Amino acid sequence: MDLLQLRNTILSIFFLCCSSVAFSHTPTQLIQDNFSELTDFTIGYYIDRTEQMSFEQIEKQAFQESPNSISLGDSAKTTWAKIELKNTTSNATTVYLHHPYAYHNRGVDLYEVVDGKLTRKRLLDMDDKSTQEWMYRGSAVFDIQLGPNQEKTLFVKSWSFSHQWFSLNLYGENESKRALLGQFTDIALLVGMLLALIVYNFLLFLSSRLKEHLYYSCYLISGGFWIALSYGLLADLFNIYGSMAFKWHLSLVSMPIFLLLFMMDIFETKKKHRIEHWALASILILLMVNFLYGLFDIVNALKIASPLASAMMLVSFSVSISMFIKKHVIARFFLIGHILFLIFSTRALLFYNGKVEFNYLNSHGVGLGIVLEALVLSLIIAYRIRAIKSLKETQTELRLQASTDPLTLLFNRRYFSIAANQELKESQGSLCIAIIDIDHFKQVNDVYGHTAGDKVIIKTADIFRAQAKKQDILARYGGEEFIILMPNTTLDDALTQIENIRTTIENEKMNIGLKHSLSIRISAGISEISPRKIDLDDAINQADKALYNAKNNGRNQTQVYKTNQ
């Protein structure tokens, strides 16, 4: 034997010994009486980077120790786990091996070895329904039969589409059922929160037709669907897994598209912020192209999606900072939402690449980030609703101020003309108009002052308002002059109504302050408006002539316009 052959023989023996040591160092899990569960224990794992190795070859490899929950990144698509079991009782028992994240895999295979011999194997292909008898609500569940005092080695092959992460747990029968029943309650809660926001904002869009509600709803739909898909809720409810589920991960690409559209609409970048609009529009085009590409090649589209998502976050974050510097009131919401999403997504990214420990926050980081950002962005919607409501109230107040006399809160002369002409166009019955004037009002101002005069005008207006019918249009026409249009009213009815007002005012003692009270009288003129020749100005002139007659005849009376006047 030459030196080269000797060296190779020594190296072979060395690697065989190392393999044997590593192989034998996987701790044995003891199954004792009344076994309930094992959810934190040590396993061995081996990454088959060729993705072609047979089980016989795998048996001979050195397995590295690790926790039973592990993430290994995207270079470990085919990974084998090894679990040593020993039944320490004198009775046969059954334990259940759970792979709770099997729904995101291409397949899960289980090999059972006793005394160095393969005794049972089960091959689970997520795209082959005939092999899915061990799938239950998104989890792979295998029953493991252990004879009295029997030792058994389990080899679990987990082969994924992209990133490799899994958790292997052991349960007794009752604990197995409980674990399956409560597995996706948290995800259902997260999706339920997003669903409530989706319905609310879609209803807002239908009522307001504002695109911001539509974009936000679509963003929530994409995010909620991806969460339900990625964290197993759709597998739990509808048995969606394997290649079919993998293709639907394209929803993760559509989510930032709608978020960018939402930002562009909320910030009005196209009209007011051209540089920011160009930045958002550029990354939006790239995302849309990648989405269309994903319809034909989902694998490569998702690979491109990762750097695009990073670029999108950078651009949107920069735009939010720019808007914040420009003192845009809602920019802080975007910054808070982006920061939360960035923190949780970074943890998830490190988890998927095997850089941080396997825990709930890390494994569910993207979903939690989406929900938290969505909730923060909902504050923008709430703020916008309040802003729009405040604007409408302000506009209503301005319209009211423009149409209302500030002293009496009756309509002013300008609005009366608009409202009366509209009523004349629409009315089918008889109409009457009356002009009313406070008798000797100048004396009230001269003797008691303008403050007392204002009180008289206010009190008179209150009586008019109380006595007028609901359909009447009442306004302050001048200083102490009032006008009232009475739709669907005959001349006799109008005379009766105005006389009631006159006598009420005549009998009213008006308190003007300093223990003074006045008795006020009014004069009124009424004109009937002909439905065949409707002209508001003519009707007002006729009522004014009748008022002139009432004043000439001694005041404190109502006169009706007659054609011979």
Automatic annotation (TrEMBL):
Q: Which GO terms describe its molecular function?
A: diguanylate cyclase activity
- Specify the domain of life of the species encoding this protein: Bacteria
* Segments passing through the bilayer: 187-207, 214-234, 246-266, 278-296, 308-325, 332-352, 364-383
Record field: catalytic activity:
2 GTP = 3',3'-c-di-GMP + 2 diphosphate
InterPro entries from the xrefs? 7TMR_DISM_rcpt_extracell_dom1, 7TMR_DISM_rcpt_extracell_dom2, Diguanylate_Cyclase, GGDEF_dom, Nucleotide_cyclase, Rev_trsase/Diguanyl_cyclase
EC number(s) on file: 2.7.7.65
Pfam families linked to this entry: 7TMR-DISM_7TM, 7TMR-DISMED2, GGDEF
- Provide this UniProt record's keywords sorted from A to Z: Membrane, Signal, Transmembrane, Transmembrane helix
- SMART domains found in the cross-reference section: GGDEF
For the keyword Membrane, the answer is: yes
Q: Which cofactor does it need?
A: Mg(2+)
Record keyword Nucleotide-binding present: no
List, for all copies, the residue spans of the domain called GGDEF: 429-563
Leader sequence range is 1-24
- NCBIfam families per record: GGDEF
**Which PANTHER family does this one have?**
DIGUANYLATE CYCLASE DGCM-RELATED (PTHR45138:SF9), REGULATORY COMPONENTS OF SENSORY TRANSDUCTION SYSTEM (PTHR45138)
Q: What is this protein called?
A: diguanylate cyclase
Query: Which species is this UniProt entry from?
Result: Marinomonas ushuaiensis DSM 15871
